[in-house]
Amino acid sequence: MKAHFVKKAAPIGSAAGLILAACAVPAWAQTSNLLLNPDFQSPADPGSNNDYECTGWNFILDAERGGFHPGPEGEYWSIWLKTFEGTEISNPTGIAGNTSGGIYQDVTIPTSGDGTNYTLSADFLFEAGYSQSGSQLDYQMAFLNSSGFQVGNSTIGYINPTDPNAQTANTWFPYTITGQAPVGSTQIQVEFDWIGGSTVSGEAQSAFVSEASLLGVGTPPGQFQWIYNGIGDWNNDANWSTGNVPNGAGVEADFFGAITANTTVADDSTTPIVLGILHFNNSNTYSLSGPYTSSLVMQGATGTAALVQVDQGTQEIDIPFTIASNCLFTVSPGATLLIANPMTVDAGDAVTQSGGGTVTYQSLVTLQSGASLSIGNATIGSGLSLASSAKVALTPAASGTAYTVQFNSLSMATGSSMDLASNKFVVNYAGNADPAASIASYIAAGYAGGKWNGAGIFSSTIAASDASQSKLIYALGYADGADGLTSVPSGEILIEPTLAGDAKLQGDVVFGDFQLLAQYFGKAGGWDEGNFTYGPTVDFGDFQELAQDFGQSAAGGLTAGELSSLNSFAAEFGDTLVANPGGGFTVAVVPEPASISLLALGGIALLSRRRRNTQE
Question: Are 331 and 389 in a shared domain?
C-alpha cells in the first residue's frame, strides 16, 4: 500500500519521502534517465489535444495526455491530471492504494541497486482553479520485489492546493524526491496521480506533469530498432522492436539488419519525427522518405548532442531535415550519408561531421544566425547558405590528408565565415550564373590585409604559417574555369591554400605565373590573372608577393632570358631582384646615382666617426 504519511515535497533542491538517503547519489549513477518516454511525447500527436496513449506508461482511470499547455521546453504533450474528477478508487488495476487517476511505469533495477538512492523529479503546472479544487497531487516511487509485491515503504511527495507554487497559474515548477531502494527490490513503480477534488465553477483547475526523470543504478530503456523487412510505415508500431514508434528528444532509432534489399521507410505524418540518435548499420540502403509535409528533427536530450551515425552502405534522409541541438554526423570509411532534402541548422546549434566516409547534400543547407558546420570528411552539396555570424570550418582529416568539399552554390551573409584550413573548396556552378565576383569578395574579406582572420573565406592554417615564418607567403588561391587560364574545368571555381604567386594553382611559382601577372597588370582580375592581394587591380604589390615565393633555389631554375624579363619588369619601377637564400627574390629599390654618392659619403663619415671613437 501507499504510505500516505510522509512530508509534502518542496520545490527542486529539497526532497521528501519516508526513506531518505543519508548520502548523495553517486554522479555515475545519475547520468541516464531510467524512464521510457520521460517527456511523454511518444506516440506523435494524433491530431487532437488529448490522448489515452503514452508509450511506456499506463493510465490510471481517466487520466490522459493533454496538449493544452506547452511543456517547459516547448513540448506538445504533458500528463493531464483531472482534479475536477474527485472520485477516489481503492486499489485500481496495477497499483496499490487509493487514487482518483494518474499514470505509472514499472522500471526494472539490478540487485546492485539495493540500498542505493534513486531520485524522481518532474515539472508540474497548475491552472488557476487548482488552488480551490481541494485535490491533492502526489508523485512517488514504490519499490517492488520480483513477485510484484511492495518492499518497504514508498517514497512520496505531495502537492496540496495550499502549495505556494499552486498560487501561480500556468507556470511550470520542478519537484524532486529521493529514496533508498530496500533490499530485495527489483522494480520501481513510478507514479503521478491525484486524489480527490471537485469542480471549481468558471475556472480551469487541472494540473499537468512534464519532464519526468528517474536517476539511479540501472540500465536506460532499450533503443527502438526497425524490424520489418520491406517497404514500411515509420508510424506503424508493429515495425519497431519495442512495439511503439520512436519520437522524442534524446530517443534512439536504429536501422540495422532487418532488411535484405534497399528499402523505403515512409513517414506520411505532418508531425515532425524527433530523435536524439539515428543509427544505420546495413550494407543495403534505408531511405527515410515522405511528402514535403513530413520532417525529421534531430534533438539530443538536455545537455547532450544528437547523433547521426552511418557504419556502412549508403543511407538516405529524404525528408525536410532540421538540426535543433548540437549534432554529430559520424560516417565510417566507405559509407555515405545522403541528405536529399533541405537541411536547416537552427540558430546557435553546431553540426560536426567526422569519419572517413562521405556526406552528400542534394539540396540546400542553411545555417541560421550563429549556427556552425564543422566538416571533417569529403562532402558534396547542392547549396550552402550562411546567415550572419554563421560559421563553416573544414577541419583537418584524421588521416592528415587534405580533402575537397564541393557545393553548387555558396551564399555568405555579412559577418559569416568559412575556414578552409588546409583543404580545398569547389563551387560547381555549371549551368548557372558565374559567382566569381562574390567568391573573390568573400576571400578578400577573409584576407583581412594579410592576417587571414576576417569574416568571409579564410584559412587558419595559412594564418599560422605566415605568422610563424617570413621566408614564404601563403594565401588562398582561386581559379575560375570559365577563363581557361588553368586546368580547373569550365563551370567550376576552385579555392585552395597555396603559395602567393601561384596563379595557375600548380603548387609552385614559376615563370608562367609571372607571364599571367604581366598580361593582366593594371587591369581588374582574379587570382589566376595575377591578383594575389585581392585588390581592385593587378599591381606591383602582387609582383612583390610573386617574387618572394619564386622558385626553389637562388636562381629559381630560371633561364637567363626569364631572369632578365623579371628584372626588366622590376626596373620599370626603379627596382631590382635580389635572390634570397633557399629560393625566391626580394624586390629592392635601385638607388639613383646622386643617392649612391650621398650614401657613400654617409658611409665614410660613419666610418670616420667609428675610428675616432676607437682612438678615444
Answer: yes
Q: Do both 173 and 262 map to the same domain?
A: no
Q: Which three cell numbers stand for residue 552?
A: 626553389
In a domain, 494, yes or no: no
The tens digit of pLDDT for each residue in 118-127 reads 999 999 999 9
Distance of CA 277 to the CA centre of its chain: 13
CB burial string 310-336: b at 16+ within 10 A, e below: bbbbbbbbbbbbbbbbbbbbbbbeebb
Nearest to 397 by CA among 370, 423, 418: 423
* Interior angle at CA 545, CA 543 and CA 549, nearest 5: 115
The residue type of 137 is L
The letter for the amino acid at 123 is D
The residue among 284, 340, 341, 356 whose CA lies nearest residue 314 is 284
Which residues span the domain enclosing 545? Answer: 512-589
* Whether residue 236 is found in the same domain as residue 103: no
Distances (CA, A) of 352 to 216, 309, 364, 371: 31, 12, 17, 11
CA 200 remoteness from chain centre: 47
For the chain, the straight-line distance linking the first and the last C-alpha, in angstroms and rounded, comes to: 110
Across 68-220, where does the E strand assignment appear? 78-81, 89-90, 98-99, 101-108, 117-126, 136-144, 155-159, 172-180, 187-195, 207-215
Tally of domains in the chain = 3
The number of CA neighbours under 13 Å toward the Cβ of 394 is: 27
- For 327-380, the pLDDT digits (tens) are 999 999 999 999 999 999 999 999 999 988 999 999 999 999 999 999 988 899
Q: Distance (Å, rounded) from C-alpha 166 to C-alpha 511?
A: 82
Domain end point (choices 215, 234, 269):
215
DSSP symbols for 129-154: TGGGT--EEEEEEEEE-TTS-B-SPP
Considering the domain architecture, whether residues 79 and 167 belong to the same structural domain is answered as yes
Among 159, 180, 215, the domain-final residue is 215
Q: Are residues 50 and 87 in the same domain?
A: yes
Report how far residue 545's alpha carbon sits from residue 547's, in angstroms, rounded to the nearest whole number. 5
Q: Are 154 and 177 in contact (CB under 8 A)?
A: no
What CATH number did the domain enclosing 78 receive?
A: 2.60.120.260
Same domain, 209 and 305: no
Three cell numbers written together for 350: 553546431
Query: Which residues on neighbouring strands pair with residue 89, listed in sequence order?
Result: 99
What residues are paired with 138 via a beta bridge?
158, 193
Q: Is residue 529 part of a domain?
A: yes
Angstrom distance (rounded) from CA 383 to CA 407: 6
Q: What's the DSSP call for residue 226? A: B
pLDDT 10s digits, 551-587: 743 334 667 777 787 788 878 777 777 777 666 677 7
In sequence order, the 6+-apart residues with CB closer than 8 A to the CB of 452 are 446, 458, 459, 460, 462, 463, 466, 475, 476
Reduce the DSSP state of residue 474 to 3 states and report it: strand
Q: Are residues 573 and 523 in the same domain?
A: yes
Omega of the bond prior to 11 within 30 degrees of 0, cis? Answer: no
Q: For residue 593, how many other CB atoms are within 10 A of its CB? A: 7
Q: What's the predicted TM-score (pTM) here?
A: 0.62
597 found inside a domain: no
Residue 102 lies in a domain: yes
Same domain? For 211 and 236 the reply is: no
